[in-house]
Amino acid sequence: MHARRTVHVPGLTRRDTDHDVLAEWSRRLAEPARLRDLLDDLDRRARPSRPRLTRTAAAFGWDAADSRTRAWVPQGVTTSADAQHEGTVHGREVVATSWYSPTVAGRTEGARVTFVDVTSPTPRYRHVLLVESWRPAATGEPATRPVAVHAGGLAWYGDLLYVAATYGGLRVFDLADLVRVDPGSFGGHAYVLPQRCAYEPEPGAAARMRYSFVSLDRTSTPHALLAGEYGRGPPPRRIVRFALDPSTGHPAATGGTASPVEAFRLDVRSMQGVACLGSAYVVTASHGPRGRGDLWVGDPASGFRRRRWALPAGPEDLSAWPAHGLLWTLTEWPGRRHVLALRTGDWTR
Question: Which CATH architecture has domain 12-348?
Answer without folding.
Answer: 6 Propeller (2.120)
